[in-house]
Amino acid sequence: MRYTSTTTTSDGITERDFDHDGVPGVLWTPAGDPTGLVLSAHGGGQHKRALGSTARAHHCAAAGLAVVTLDAPGHGDRPRTPEDEHYATEIRARLTTGRDATAVVAEYNALQAARAIPEWRSVLDTLVEPLGGATGSDVGFWGVSMGSALGIPLAAAEPRIRTAVFGLVGATDALTLAATTITASVRFLLQWDDQLVPRDAGLALFDAFAGPRKSLHANPGGHGEVPAHELDDAVRFLAG
Amino acid sequence: MRYTSTTTTSDGITERDFDHDGVPGVLWTPAGDPTGLVLSAHGGGQHKRALGSTARAHHCAAAGLAVVTLDAPGHGDRPRTPEDEHYATEIRARLTTGRDATAVVAEYNALQAARAIPEWRSVLDTLVEPLGGATGSDVGFWGVSMGSALGIPLAAAEPRIRTAVFGLVGATDALTLAATTITASVRFLLQWDDQLVPRDAGLALFDAFAGPRKSLHANPGGHGEVPAHELDDAVRFLAG
Fold it and tell me: What's the rounded Cα separation, in Å, for the pair A103 and A115?
């Protein structure tokens, strides 16, 4: 992991841009010793410093947590393959013409998971030790929509992830299978009027999580309209 | 309202037993001026000082809220009519023999609502003024199961109720109709494996709330197994 720039904000939060084997990312650390580490994965079409990712990171750091985010494959400062271009065009075309994008989003998400999971595991290996023992045993994950499509199989493969905020994604065979093996405590966010995720598919995926602690939080509104109180609530859940 | 006894606990919370036109109840007030008033309705077969009601009241009072609870008709220190006895026997018999109790519970709940709503409105009229102006404009309701069966039509009739914690109850024609007219912010608790409330009936009732702010919190477990973190969360929601 090669740090390329460091800035400290007025509230004592340090932001470090880095490059990890060609994957650009940002590490936020709180003023004092972090009490845990949160892996924060952005949604489709977004990037490591998108408004949502940055707000989430600052809220977490203010609560004492370190946060790391990466540009997903084909997103942000990373090159797009012809496959990325194909899916981006196809998903956009379907959404703008009001056609069903569920299947093609699920296909692209599966591809993203296959590419991103090894990157996240490598970042986790690199960060856990320097951040200290307590942090290493308290790893959380926060990613909805495409962030959950990679986060759910990541958490299934990574028992170091103890707490996870997922949501805005529906059941597929692969995600359902992964969900049944996750032991982390899960907060699952569902938007009641999500135009990209059929309600029943979201409820079915929540149903599949087999761990003893899981909570579904459902709110009115579309895919991008998770209310602000869920942000605060998720920070409390991860910091808890 | 005639106060029959007053005690103050070590944390400065005052508990007053009272009788209001023949209805026994308890009023808890915090050490300082209350910032709001919560109407707390217990579930079927319980009473005004049941463990759950008392824990809820102490958590709310510690957060600065006044809390009032009543014995429901046919519950606690109140006389049971032959109808109460009939329903209590019938519901118990169905539950212990594993038969479906949904319809008979819904019937009894509707009867309870018709009897209890005028009592709650009268208590609210009596308490709002003495507790002061700020409290009177910030009234919350907290009742699940039978408590919601009366609380949902109560909140529909009482625009003074601005915030409400409901749950553990399924859609019926009467509850669905009431839910569509409620303007209060709603927190709805659903137990994913509720043996008394079919999952779809709970989801359908959540769907019916027409106000702009509502959140569903669903957790694994049966009817009586709402996790402790939802207690803290509900207090924060009501105190917010």
Answer: 19
Contact A217 B216 (CB under 8 A): yes
> CA neighbours within 13 Å on the CB side: how many for B99?
10
Q: Taking 60 as the threshold, does the pLDDT of residue A134 lie above it?
A: no
Its pTM stands at 0.91
Output DSSP code: residue A88: H
How far apart are the C-alpha atoms of A177 and A169, rounded to whole Å? Answer: 14
- Chain B residue with minimal CA distance to A207? B192
CB contact under 8 A, B218 and A219: no
Q: How confident is the model at residue A132 (pLDDT cuts 50, 70, 90)?
A: low
Interface probe with A: pick from B187, B192, B193, most Cβ of A within 10 Å: B192
What CATH number does residue A167 fall under? 3.40.50.1820
Query: Rounded mean pLDDT of chain B?
Result: 93
Residue A221 has which token pair? 């509104």
3-state SS of chain B: helix, strand, coil percent to 5? Answer: 40, 25, 35
Q: How far apart are CA B71 and CA B176, in angstroms?
A: 25
Supply B197's token pair. Answer: 């409330």
C-beta separation of B44 from B109 below 8 A: yes
Select the residue of B207, B216, B227 nearest A216 (Cβ to Cβ). B216
- Which amino acid is present at A23? V
Partner-chain residue, chosen from A214, A219, A229, that has the shortest CB–CB distance to B220: A214
Q: Summarize pLDDT for B99-122 with one digit per residue, the tens.
A: 998 899 999 999 999 999 999 999
- B163 backbone dihedrals φ, ψ, rounded to 5°: -140, 135
Full domain range(s) for residue A60? 2-239
Q: Which chain B residue's Cα is nearest to A186?
A: B219
Total of domains in chain B: 1
Q: Say what the pLDDT of residue B179 is.
A: 97
Give me B27's structure tokens: 């009023």
Report residue A177 as tokens. Answer: 């299978």
* B203: contact with A, CB 8 A cutoff: yes
